[in-house]
Design goal:
The protein is mostly helical. The protein has one domain. The protein is 69% helix and 0% strand. The protein is built from 14 helices and no strands. α5 packs antiparallel against α7 and α10 packs antiparallel against α11. 28% of the residues are buried.
């Protein structure tokens, strides 16, 4: 396959994962749990899915349409190879044991709310057990993305520094007079625009949420529920990007040269406009239908 179509397909793989990850709390262990922590909220998987799953599926469908239109020329060049059925040998005892371990880790991690064992412990124990089984070796530590860890450390720290230094307070002090005194379409639009604008300036979605979430929740206290405000910010920040550093998932793919920044700009420019409209017309309508606002 030529480079152009291949890069577009890889971009789609990474790009759609950012939307799919919004469907459940455990869709993205970093962003989703960080958003809740920044808002000081304790929300279960069921509540998260009630607020976000249906409208996010609509957003995913709209993103698919945009993807097919924006990359129409490259997608037309994709040629699927004919499927060849090969006889698969039966699993060995070792392979069955490895599969059982992986399934156990996934199931225990996904059902944390039922048994109460933190996912951190489940993943840690599962990883340790993979060494004697030969699934992991010491040389695999070389695969750890140190640059990403440094980026995440900086991203988490910037928001805290801005709050402690008073920069975040100065920013939102200027925004406060602009917000209406009652909750409505205008209020939602202003929250979304504020989050998206600061996201473009601050870059990382983690950094942006660490600044925007406390500020908006403080301004909106008594106007709307903190859950609704948090989810407006979350969708506005995590659902769009223009450059690689705007979303850590997209940064990973671009860093491996699977696609370029131009792919992100072409798709992201249209997606940003569509996302804003989706927050107002789909997410807010869904929450009103359920009586959440």
């Amino acid at each position: 396959m030529e480079q152009g179509p291949r890069q577009v397909l890889m971009f789609g793989l990474y790009g759609f994962s950012t939307i799919v990850n919004m469907l459940m709390i455990r869709g993205d262990l970093i962003l989703n749990t960080a958003a809740l922590a920044m808002g000081g909220l304790t929300i279960g998987e069921g509540t998260w899915m009630t607020y976000l799953t249906v409208p996010t599926l609509v957003l995913c469908g709209l993103a698919l349409v945009i993807y097919r239109v924006v990359f129409k020329r490259e997608l037309a060049q994709v040629r699927l190879a004919p499927s060849i059925r090969e006889e698969v040998p039966p699993m060995t005892g070792r392979e069955k044991l490895n599969l059982a371990l992986i399934l156990a880790v996934v199931v225990l991690w996904a059902t944390e709310s039922l048994h109460g064992v933190k996912g951190l412990y489940v993943v840690t124990v599962g990883t340790v057990l993979m060494f004697p089984l030969g699934m992991l070796r010491l040389k695999d530590f070389k695969s750890v993305n140190v640059k990403l860890l440094v980026f995440l450390t900086a991203a988490f720290s910037i928001g805290g520094v801005m709050k402690v230094s008073g920069a975040a307070s100065i920013i939102f002090t200027r925004f406060t007079p602009l917000f209406p005194t009652s909750f409505g379409w205008g209020y939602v639009a202003l929250v979304a625009l504020t989050a998206m604008a600061l996201h473009m300036v601050l870059g990382s979605n983690i950094t942006t949420m660490s600044v925007v979430v406390p500020g908006i929740l403080s301004i909106g206290a008594g106007v709307s529920s903190p859950e609704v405000l948090l989810f407006i910010i979350y969708v506005a920040v995590c659902g769009h990007y223009l450059l690689p550093f705007h979303h850590v998932v997209m940064l990973l793919g671009e860093g491996k040269a699977y696609y370029s920044g131009s792919h992100m700009m072409r798709f992201g420019a249209v997606m940003t406009v569509v996302l804003f409209g989706t927050v107002l017309l789909v997410y807010l309508s869904w929450w009103k239908l359920l009586g959440l606002v």
